[in-house]
C-alpha cells in the first residue's frame, strides 16, 4: 500500500531560542495523538539531558505524525526539529533541505530576533513555504500588532496569513496543523524515477551501527535493496528502513516524498556523509541531489586529559563522540605544558562548551581546555602561507610578513535605547560599523563587521548585560583581513607555558598581558616556592606578578594513634592535585587555562 | 569467618609480632568537655563501673589466642584518666598483666587534668608502676584557660606538677596550646618560660585547631571567635621551635619536644608505624599492615562487649601505596626522611633538583642520606609530604 505524495507534508519549525519551538512541537504531537498526554514530557524531542537542562536543541530530530484534516483526508506529517542557536546553523540548513515548508515561530512579547531573521533567510534560500505563527499571544506583554507588522516586513506575507497561537495554553494548534496541510506543498518527487534519497542526519547506535535519517526524493527504498552512497562510492545492503515515531518503526519500504531512517550495516559514521545522496546501486540516478556546504570549524582549542595517563581514554571518548557529532574535528597535538592532547575545531563557543560538558558527563573524562582561538592565515616573509589554529605554533615575529584573521558580519537586534552601548562594545572589539535599520519604532537592527576572535571571548555575555538581556545576536563568516596581531606569551618562573599563549591585537596587548597575569595570580594557589608570572611579547616582558610561597600547612595536633584520619587528609590533598597540571615546578589549576575568557570581569 | 574490608570480624586481633607492643587505653570520661576538643568523651559518669568491667573483658577477648605478647609502653589517655580511682586503675593493670608480658623497661603514662588531681591518687598511681605523667596545662593565663573552658587555673597547674614530682614522678610532660585567638607572642613566650621553669622532661605545644563538630567550630562560624591568621600561627610555631631549642629540648615531632632520652616511646610507636593495641571506645590499633578502631560511643562499646564481641568499628588493610604515603608523612612529622629506607622499601628516589630546590628555599638540609626539616620546613610539613607523595604518583 503505497503512500501518495499528495498526502505527505514535510516541514520544520524555525524560531529564535526560547520563542516556543519545542513547546509547539510537543503540542502538535499531542494533538495528532502521536503521543498521549500521559507519555508527554516537556521538550519530548530533545532527549539529550543537556538539551532539556539548557532548554535548547542541539541535534536535529525527526518525527512522523498522522493528521486527520478538515478536508477528510489523513495526512502524514514529518516534523524535522532543528536547533536554533547560531553555532548549529549547519544543522538547520540540513533539515531545511528535507522539507517543503517551515513554521516560523515568533514570540509575541519579544518580536523578531536575530536568529529569526537568519533562519528565515536560510528557509527562503531553500525555497520553503513559510507559515508565520505568533506564539505566546496570551502573555500580558504580548504585542501582537507590532509583531505582525515586523513579520509582514520580514517575509512579505499578508497580515491575515499570520496565525496566532499559544503553545503553552494550547491555543491555535488546530489552525497551525490546517495551515501545514493547506499551505505547504506536497513533495514533488517521482516514485518511478531512479531512487534518490538525501541523508540529512546520522546517528550512531551501539546495537545497529550507523542509522541514517533520510528524505526520499525520488523512487523507493526497500529492505534488501543494494544502495550506493554517492560521495563515498560505498555500496551497502539495506537491513531495515522505517519511519520515525517516538521510536523507530520498521516499514517494508519508504516511498518518494517520505522521511524515515535507513540501517545498512554501516559501521562508521565516516562511511556515510550527511548531505550525500543514497541511490539504487543497480540503477543509479544520473545526478546526485545538491548536498550541503562543508561544515567549517570556526573556533579551536586544545583538549587535554587532566592526567596525562588518560590520553588513550580521551582518544577513545573523542572517537565515540564524533560518531554522533560530525562537526567536531580533532587531531592529536603535543603541548610542552600539558603533554599529549588534541587540537579540536568547533562550530562556535556553545558547541565547544557542549562538547566539553558531554565528554565530562557522558564519557566521564576530566579534561583541561585551553583558551579558544580562531584560525589565522600567516603569510611569511618568504611568501609561504600557513594556517595557524594554535597560538603556540605562531612563527617568530621576524618570519612574519603579515597575519590575516577571520571577520564576521554580526547582526545585533536590540531596543533602541541600547544602541549606544552596543556601538561602544563593538567598537571596543575592533568592529567596523556597517548600518542600523529599525525593525519597528522601538527596535534597531545593527550590523557590524567584527573579528571573529573578538566575539570568541565573552562577547555574548557582555552584550546581554549591556542591553539588560534584550539583545539578540547572530553572525556569519565574511572574509579574512590583515590585522596587526601579536602573540602574547605567559611565562611561569621563566618558562613559556605554550598552552597559555594567545594571539591579540597589538593595541590591546599591554592591557591584556597585565590583566591576564593578575588573573593568574589569583587562580594559582600558593605553593612551596615563589611563582613568578610574566606576560611577554617575543622577548619583551610587559607584565609581572608574583605569588609568595605558602606560609603554613601543617596540622600541629596529636591524633593519638589515629593515623588513618591524617592519611585520608593527605589523600584528599592528592586528589586535589590531580586536577592540577604540573608545569615545571608550578602546579596550575585547570581554571587558569581559561583565565583569558573571564578577563573583563575584573573591571 | 571471612574478613571483609568494611565489616571485619577479628576474632582475636592480638597475635605474635616481632617487636614489643604499645597499649593505649581510652578513658572516655571528663568532668567537663572542653569546647575545642573533638576526642570522644562524655560528662556523664554513671556507667563508670560498667565501663571498667567492659574494658577488662575487651582485653581478655582480644587476647584469647596464642601466648602472651611483650608490652613495653602503656598509655592511659582520654578523656580524663585521672578521674579513675587507683583501685580502678589497678584492676585494669591486673588485667594487662594477666594477658601480656610486661617488659622491665616499661614506659607507663597517665594523662592528668590539673583540675582533678588528688594528691593521694598521685602517690598511688606511682605505686602502681605508672612512671610518666602528662598534664593538660594548656596555658598559664587564667583568661586563656577560661576561653578554653578548662576547669583549672594557672596556680593549680603549677601546684599539680610540684605534687607529681613529690609523689615520685621524674618523667613529666606538659601540654601547652598556642595560636589562641588574639594571643600575643609575649604571652606565648611567657607560657613557654613558665612551663619550662617547672622542669618537665617533655613538652607538647599544639596549635589550637578549629575542628568541625566542636562548640568552637560553631563559635567561629557565627563570627563570635576569630581564629588566628595563618601567618601569625606560622610565626608562633617558629617561636615555639626556637625557644625550645634554646632550652635544650629536642624537637622530635611536629608538636613534641623532649630532653635527651625522654622522648615519649609510646607515641613514637604511632609515628614509626610500630605496633600498638588500643582498648576503650574510639581507640585505634595497628598491627603489621592492619589498622582498626573501636566505635566512638560508650553505649555501643558496652553493648558489643555485653555480647562478648569486640567493639570494632572498622578496619583496613594497608595497601603498598598507603604504606608508602604513611611512611613519608609520618617520617616528615618527625622532621626527617631517611632516603635510604625510602629507596630500599619503596623504590623511590628523590631527584637531585627537587632536593636542591627544597634546600635553597630553606625547607630542609640533608645529612647522612636523610632529609632533615628546618623550622621553616616544619611550618609547611604537610605541603612537603603532599609534594613528595605526589612525585611518586607521577613517576609510577
Describe the model.
The complex is a heterodimer of chains A (603) and B (396). Chain A contains 13 helices and 33 strands. With 603 residues, chain A is an alpha+beta fold. In chain A, the strands form 7 sheets. An 8-stranded antiparallel sheet of chain A has the order 11-10-16-7-8-15-12-13. Chain A has a 6-stranded mixed sheet with strand order 2-3-1-4-5-6, with helices on both faces. In chain A, strand 30 and strand 31 (540-547) form a beta hairpin. The N and C termini of chain A lie far apart (69 Å). Chain B has 2 domains: 21-271, TIM Barrel; 320-395, Arc Repressor Mutant, subunit A (Orthogonal Bundle), CATH 1.10.10. Chain B has 15 helices and 15 strands. In chain B, helix 1 crosses helix 10 (298-306) and helix 6 (185-197) packs parallel to helix 8 (230-246). Chain B has 396 residues and is of the alpha/beta class. Mean pLDDT of chain B is 92; it is low at 1-8. Chain A binds chain B through residues 527-529, 549-558, 560-564, 566-567, 569-571, 573-574, 577-578, 582, 585, and chain B through 24, 39, 77, 204-207, 209, 230-231, 233-234, 237, 254-255, 267, 270, 273, 276, 278, 283-286, 291, 293, 316, 322, 325-326, 329-330, 357-358, 361, 363, 378-387, 389-390, 393-394.
Q: Which structural traits does this protein have?
A:
heterodimer; A: alpha+beta; eight-stranded antiparallel beta sheet; six-stranded mixed beta sheet; 13 helices; 24% helix; B: 396 residues; alpha/beta; TIM Barrel; Arc Repressor Mutant, subunit A; 2 domains; 15 strands; 41% helix; globular
Amino acid at each position: 500500500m503505497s503512500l501518495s505524495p499528495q498526502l505527505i507534508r514535510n516541514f520544520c519549525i524555525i524560531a529564535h531560542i526560547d520563542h516556543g519551538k519545542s513547546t509547539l512541537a510537543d503540542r502538535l504531537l499531542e494533538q495528532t495523538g502521536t503521543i498521549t498526554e500521559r507519555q508527554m514530557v516537556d521538550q519530548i524531542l530533545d532527549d539529550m539531558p543537556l538539551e532539556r537542562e539548557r532548554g535548547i536543541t542541539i541535534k536535529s530530530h525527526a518525527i512522523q505524525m498522522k493528521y486527520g484534516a478538515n478536508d477528510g483526508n489523513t495526512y502524514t506529517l514529518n516534523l524535522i526539529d532543528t536547533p536554533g542557536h547560531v553555532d548549529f546553523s549547519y544543522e538547520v540548513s540540513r533539515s531545511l533541505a528535507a522539507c517543503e515548508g517551515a513554521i516560523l515561530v515568533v514570540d509575541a512579547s519579544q518580536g523578531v530576533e536575530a536568529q529569526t531573521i537568519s533562519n528565515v533567510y536560510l528557509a527562503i534560500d531553500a525555497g520553503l513555504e513559510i507559515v508565520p505563527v505568533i506564539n505566546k499571544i496570551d502573555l500580558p506583554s504580548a504585542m501582537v500588532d507590532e509583531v505582525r507588522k515586523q513579520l509582514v516586513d520580514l517575509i512579505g506575507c499578508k497580515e491575515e496569513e499570520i496565525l496566532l497561537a499559544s503553545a503553552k495554553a494550547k491555543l491555535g494548534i488546530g489552525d497551525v496543523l490546517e495551515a501545514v496541510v493547506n499551505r505547504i506543498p506536497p513533495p514533488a518527487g517521482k516514485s518511478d524515477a531512479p531512487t534518490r534519497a538525501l541523508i540529512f542526519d546520522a546517528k550512531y547506535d551501539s546495537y545497529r551501527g550507523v542509522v541514517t535519517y533520510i528524505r526520499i526524493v525520488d523512487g523507493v527504498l526497500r529492505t534488501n535493496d543494494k544502495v550506493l552512497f554517492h560521495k563515498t562510492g560505498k555500496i551497502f545492503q539495506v537491513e531495515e528502513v522505517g519511519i520515525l515515531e517516538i521510536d523507530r518503526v520498521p516499514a517494508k519500504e519508504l516511498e518518494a516524498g517520505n522521511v524515515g531512517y535507513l540501517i545498512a550495516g554501516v559501521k562508521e559514521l565516516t562511511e556515510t556523509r550527511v548531505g550525500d545522496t543514497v541511490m539504487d546501486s543497480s540503477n543509479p540516478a544520473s545526478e546526485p541531489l545538491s548536498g550541503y556546504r562543508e561544515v567549517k570549524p570556526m573556533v579551536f582549542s586544545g583538549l587535554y586529559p587532566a592526567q596525562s595517563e588518560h590520553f588513550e581514554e580521551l582518544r577513545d571518548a573523542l572517537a565515540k563522540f564524533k560518531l554522533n557529532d560530525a562537526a567536531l574535528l580533532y587531531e592529536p597535538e603535543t603541548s610542552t605544558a600539558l603533554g599529549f592532547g588534541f587540537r579540536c575545531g568547533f562550530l562556535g563557543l556553545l558547541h565547544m562548551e557542549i562538547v566539553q560538558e558531554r565528554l565530562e558527563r557522558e564519557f566521564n573524562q576530566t579534561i583541561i581546555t585551553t583558551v579558544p582561538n580562531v584560525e589565522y592565515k600567516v603569510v611569511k616573509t618568504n611568501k609561504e602561507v600557513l594556517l595557524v589554529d594554535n597560538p603556540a605554533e605562531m612563527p617568530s615575529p621576524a618570519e612574519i610578513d603579515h597575519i590575516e584573521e577571520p571577520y564576521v558580519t554580526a547582526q545585533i537586534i536590540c531596543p533602541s535605547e541600547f544602541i549606544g552601548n552596543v556601538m561602544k562594545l563593538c567598537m571596543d572589539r575592533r568592529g567596523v560599523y556597517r548600518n542600523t535599520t529599525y525593525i519597528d519604532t522601538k527596535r534597531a537592527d545593527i550590523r557590524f563587521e567584527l573579528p571573529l576572535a573578538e566575539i570568541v571571548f565573552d562577547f555574548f555575555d557582555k552584550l546581554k548585560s549591556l542591553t539588560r538581556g534584550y539583545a539578540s545576536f547572530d553572525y556569519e563568516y565574511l572574509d579574512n583581513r590583515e590585522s596587526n596581531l601579536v602573540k602574547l606569551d605567559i611565562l611561569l618562573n621563566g618558562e613559556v607555558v605554550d598552552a597559555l599563549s594567545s594571539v591579540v591585537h597589538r593595541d590591546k596587548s599591554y592591557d591584556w598581558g597585565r590583566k591576564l597575569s593578575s588573573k593568574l595570580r589569583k587562580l594559582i594557589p600558593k605553593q612551596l616556592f615563589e611563582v613568578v608570572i610574566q606576560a611577554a611579547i617575543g622577548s619583551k616582558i610587559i607584565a609581572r606578578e608574583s605569588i609568595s610561597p605558602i606560609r603554613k600547612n601543617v596540622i600541629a595536633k596529636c591524633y593519638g594513634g589515629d593515623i588513618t584520619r591524617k592519611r585520608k587528609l593527605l589523600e584528599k590533598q592528592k586528589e586535589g592535585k590531580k586536577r592540577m597540571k604540573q608545569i615545571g615546578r608550578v602546579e596550575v589549576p585547570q581554571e587558569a587555562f581559561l583565565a583569558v575568557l573571564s578577563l573583563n570581569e575584573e573591571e | 569467618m571471612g574478613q571483609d574490608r568494611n565489616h571485619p570480624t577479628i576474632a582475636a586481633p592480638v597475635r605474635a609480632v616481632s617487636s614489643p607492643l604499645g597499649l593505649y587505653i581510652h578513658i572516655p570520661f571528663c568532668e567537663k568537655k572542653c569546647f575545642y576538643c573533638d576526642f570522644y568523651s562524655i560528662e556523664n559518669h554513671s556507667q563508670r563501673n560498667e565501663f571498667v568491667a567492659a574494658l577488662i573483658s575487651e582485653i581478655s577477648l582480644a587476647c584469647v589466642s596464642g601466648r602472651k605478647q611483650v608490652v613495653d609502653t602503656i598509655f592511659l589517655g582520654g578523656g580524663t584518666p585521672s578521674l579513675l580511682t587507683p583501685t580502678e586503675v589497678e584492676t585494669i593493670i591486673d588485667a594487662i598483666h594477666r594477658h601480656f608480658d610486661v617488659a622491665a623497661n616499661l614506659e607507663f603514662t597517665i594523662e592528668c587534668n590539673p583540675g582533678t588531681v588528688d594528691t593521694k591518687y598521685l602517690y598511688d598511681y606511682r605505686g602502681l608502676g605508672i612512671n610518666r605523667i602528662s598534664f593538660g596545662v594548656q596555658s598559664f593565663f587564667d583568661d586563656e584557660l577560661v576561653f578554653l573552658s578548662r576547669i583549672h587555673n594557672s596556680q593549680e597547674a603549677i601546684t599539680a606538677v610540684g605534687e607529681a614530682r613529690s609523689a615520685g614522678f621524674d618523667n613529666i610532660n606538659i601540654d601547652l596550646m598556642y595560636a589562641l585567638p588574639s594571643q600575643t607572642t609575649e604571652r606565648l613566650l611567657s607560657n613557654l618560660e613558665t612551663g619550662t621553669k617547672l622542669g618537665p622532661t617533655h613538652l607538647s605545644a599544639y596549635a589550637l585547631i578549629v575542628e568541625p563538630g566542636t562548640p568552637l567550630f560553631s563559635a567561629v562560624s557565627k563570627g563570635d571567635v576569630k581564629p588566628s591568621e595563618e601567618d601569625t600561627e606560622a610565626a608562633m610555631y617558629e617561636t615555639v621551635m626556637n625557644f625550645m631549642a634554646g632550652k635544650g629540648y629536642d624537637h622530635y615531632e611536629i608538636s613534641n619536644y623532649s630532653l635527651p632520652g625522654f622522648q615519649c616511646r609510646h607515641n613514637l610507636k604511632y609515628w614509626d608505624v610500630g605496633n600498638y593495641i588500643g582498648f576503650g571506645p574510639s581507640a585505634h590499633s595497628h598491627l603489621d599492615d592492619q589498622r582498626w578502631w573501636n566505635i566512638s560511643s560508650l553505649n555501643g562499646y558496652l553493648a558489643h562487649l555485653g555480647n562478648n564481641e569486640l567493639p570494632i568499628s572498622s578496619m583496613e588493610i594497608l595497601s603498598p601505596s598507603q604504606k608508602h604515603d604513611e611512611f613519608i608523612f609520618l617520617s616528615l612529622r618527625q622532621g626527617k626522611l631517611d632516603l635510604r629506607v625510602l629507596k630500599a622499601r619503596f623504590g623511590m628516589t628523590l631527584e637531585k633538583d627537587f632536593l636542591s630546590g627544597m634546600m635553597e628555599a630553606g625547607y630542609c638540609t640533608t645529612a647522612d642520606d636523610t632529609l632533615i626539616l628546618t623550622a621553616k620546613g616544619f611550618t609547611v610539613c604537610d605541603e612537603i609530604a603532599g609534594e613528595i607523595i605526589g612525585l611518586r604518583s607521577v613517576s609510577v
